[in-house]
Amino acid sequence: MAIQQKKTETELPLDTILAGDCVARMQELPENSVDLIFADPPYNLQLKGELHRPDNSKVDAVDDHWDQFNSFAAYDRFSREWLAAARRILKPDGAIWVIGSYHNIFRVGAALQDAGYWILNDVVWRKSNPMPNFRGKRLTNAHETMIWAAKSDSGKYTFNYEALKALNEGVQMRSDWVLPICSGGERLKDAAGNKAHPTQKPESLLHRVLVASTKPGDVVLDPFFGTGTTGAVAKRLGRHFIGIEREEEYRAVAEARIEAIRRYDRDALQVTQSKRAEPRVAFGTLVERGLLPVGAELRSLNGRHRAKVRADGTLIAHDTKGSIHQVGAVLEGAPSCNGWTYWTFRKGGDWVPIDVLRQQVRAEMSPA
Amino acid sequence: MAIQQKKTETELPLDTILAGDCVARMQELPENSVDLIFADPPYNLQLKGELHRPDNSKVDAVDDHWDQFNSFAAYDRFSREWLAAARRILKPDGAIWVIGSYHNIFRVGAALQDAGYWILNDVVWRKSNPMPNFRGKRLTNAHETMIWAAKSDSGKYTFNYEALKALNEGVQMRSDWVLPICSGGERLKDAAGNKAHPTQKPESLLHRVLVASTKPGDVVLDPFFGTGTTGAVAKRLGRHFIGIEREEEYRAVAEARIEAIRRYDRDALQVTQSKRAEPRVAFGTLVERGLLPVGAELRSLNGRHRAKVRADGTLIAHDTKGSIHQVGAVLEGAPSCNGWTYWTFRKGGDWVPIDVLRQQVRAEMSPA
DNA sequence: GTGAAAGTTGAATCAGGGA
DNA sequence: GTCCCTGATTCAACTTTCA
Fold it and tell me: Could you tell me what reaction this enzyme catalyses (chains A, B) (predicted)?
């Protein structure tokens, strides 16, 4: 015991995926050593039968063995155990994020409070493209809930207020986030073309979580690693990750996925620090959604200037940093500049104004 | 006791506000008598006094956590008591809505599941004009959470699917609702111009709740009535209400408020009905009435299959015999099939769905 | 090639009545 | 309680097919 308490952060298995039960693995790690925990525990869905769409095709339900619990009591026991193990390894100023649906989130939230965590916000992930309710018997289940909590009510948790403000058109980030579900090319498939994991989360969600509540170099642990979205985004953002996953199949997929990831440039990882009022730009949303990769090069419409995209939706050109409008104005020596029409990005062989991406995002968000 | 159990719904104190503790008042009401409960339970008073103690550096962490657990336990006891009393008076097919924030909603949700309620949806009220976070230490708390639950997993709860779809421009209603907070003329003020109640809910929220989950004439009970938003909207929508409120000041405000409310016209209270509500018509009836001759040929909507009508209202196609639904399912290799929309008959030069004949029969059945 | 049309899919506690 | 039958029900995004 005395030996274990002497372990330091340098002994952490950084940037690796541990095999086995998350409680056992966390108990082997040194206490007070991890900056952030992101957890996507099983939801304990209780499905009674098959569900068909109006066209008679069958809905591929989450009926995996790892989501089965015998009772609420059994699920609560499970929650209390992993939450306690997670809290022990968190630094005093560390924090945790847990995601869930109405099936489990109330139980997890209560267990979290009972364990001594201090809730900072509950954050709603509003899905822009959820699965509809096929039988017309309830409301479309169009969101999931995340709880963000500090280790204790005295923890000095990390919150990059200005960075999130920059991501949100220059106004404070709210507790409801509109993001699409994970699909298309981002969705990992096996050799047969089937989804590699039934509940893969979108990278845009983890991007916002990590930009909000970690600093470069921080250690982020995910006890239910799955196919490694947390690790992929952490690596890209220059954070260390530790994954724990029971299923070998998922570990293998995650390993290959993360291996292919490249970290963003050091410049791009610097987020806005200043308290100056940010102009109202939605540019950060393009970055979050992956419409423009962090580190991408933008070119001015007149072809005379170039700039690089940073993680919080600001630009850098030489030693000039700021919003798309600010950087454009400085480079042109002009009092002001509309960055949306000034900057272009490379699309196929052409340079296209970034405003087309904004229109794309608006089209996705407007039905809300 | 025996007398109390014999009470019928006619003995309910309809459209009145009861004074006193909600648990005691609910225990006096007959069981299985109320259609819907809407509850906005307190949380600030319950938690703040006990959790936010003056900053005392002498208190060590263990005591602190023990303290927290104690106050959470007290709140849980309170929740379990009123949820149990509420569940007793609910009709078997009744339902409940509870609204709260991250301070209390996880505890209430877990208690609700433990009490045997069956969660149908969690609904996010996304505030279009929330109060900003002044200190910039967290995300703007821009939503509250409602839980919608049936009395049990076998309860046949009311859900006016088509009405909510109509409210949402023709697409099914989602679990996130964007509505402004209560302000302006709707916000009740006292003589001095101060708000009469700190957490008055907007009528638009209750409007959607009641349109979604009640029918005209239903009984809606609110155990934390406050200034009576639930009663005001219920009266306007032609539902009965029962309010319970401890504070005389709030009761007086609510009384005056509801007195001034006028019910909408009966016509206006009618909402779009689901097809399920229409009377059932047997296919054989069409044959009996001569709307389709025995031996008539039917064709599938996609044109790929044909069948012949038999005297008993069944179909035959090759060697497949059975109902319009069964034969359609077999021919399509589908788990099920709606024969009414699958089969067409020859009318003049066109092939028309047999459903038009069913509508014809329905029109003859109901003189309305 | 290009665009229109058709097909696929996503953490789902998803029916009601009569015999 | 069970079994059986009727018949009501989908949105957005991406992928594939076909004209």
Answer: a 2'-deoxyadenosine in DNA + S-adenosyl-L-methionine = an N(6)-methyl-2'-deoxyadenosine in DNA + S-adenosyl-L-homocysteine + H(+)
Q: How far apart are CA A112 and CA A277, in angstroms?
A: 36
- Please give the CATH topology (third level) of the domain spanning B16-269: Rossmann fold (3.40.50)
CA nearest A356: which of A365, A367, A345, A366?
Answer: A345
User: Which DSSP string corresponds to B94-146?
Assistant: EEEEEEE-TTTHHHHHHHHHHTT-EEEEEEEEEESSPPP-SSSSS-B--EEEE
d(Cα B347, Cα A196) in Å, to the nearest integer?
51
- A104-158 pLDDT, tens digit per residue, is 999 999 999 999 999 999 999 999 999 999 999 999 999 999 999 999 999 999 9
pLDDT band for position A310 (cuts 50, 70, 90): confident
Contact A121/B at CB under 8 A: yes
Choose among A109, A104, A48: nearest CA to A75. Answer: A104
Name A275's Cβ contacts closer than 8 Å, sequence gap at least 6. Answer: A162
Euclidean distance between CA atoms B169 and A28, whole angstroms: 55
Q: What pLDDT does residue A335 have? A: 80
Percent of chain B with pLDDT over 70: 89
Distance, Å, B267 CA → C14 C1':
31
Does A72 contact strand D, using a CB cutoff of 7 Å?
Answer: no
Partner B, chain A 159-188, Cβ-Cβ below 8 Å? 159, 161, 164, 172-176
Asked if A202 contacts A181 with a C-beta cutoff of 8 angstroms, the reply is: yes
8 Å CB contact between B83 and B112: yes
C-alpha angle B290-B292-B297 in degrees, rounded to nearest 5 = 150
Q: Where are the domains of chain B?
A: 16-269, 283-365
β-partners of residue B241 are B220
DSSP A47: -
pLDDT in tens, B328-349: 999 999 999 999 999 999 999 8
Q: Can you tell me which residue has the tokens 């016209």?
A: B265
Give contacts of B56 with chain A, Cβ < 8 Å. Answer: none
* Of A315, A252, A221, nearest in space to A28 by CA: A221
Least confidently predicted of A28-32, A53-57, B41-45, B266-270:
B41-45
pLDDT tops 80 at residue B69: no
**CB distance B250 to B225 below 8 Å:** yes
A172 close to B133: Cβ distance less than 8 angstroms: yes
B344 Cβ contact list (under 8 Å, min separation 6): B298, B299, B300, B301, B351, B352, B353, B354
Min CA distance, A200 vs chain B (Å)? Answer: 21
**3-state secondary structure at position B268:** helix
Work out whether the CA dihedral B207, B209, B214, B219 comes out positive or negative.
Answer: negative
Other Cβ atoms less than 10 A from the Cβ of B228: the count is 27
Query: Which tokens hold the place of B299?
Result: 């064709």
The nucleotides of chain D lying under 7 Å from a protein CB are 1, 5-15
Query: Regarding predicted confidence, which is higher, A366 or B231?
Result: B231
Structure token pair of residue A15 = 């940037």
What is the rounded end-to-end Cα distance, in angstroms, of chain B?
46
The band of A271, judged by pLDDT with boundaries at 50, 70 and 90, is: low
The first and second tokens of residue B151, run together, are 């009395």
What share of chain A in percent tops pLDDT 90? Answer: 73
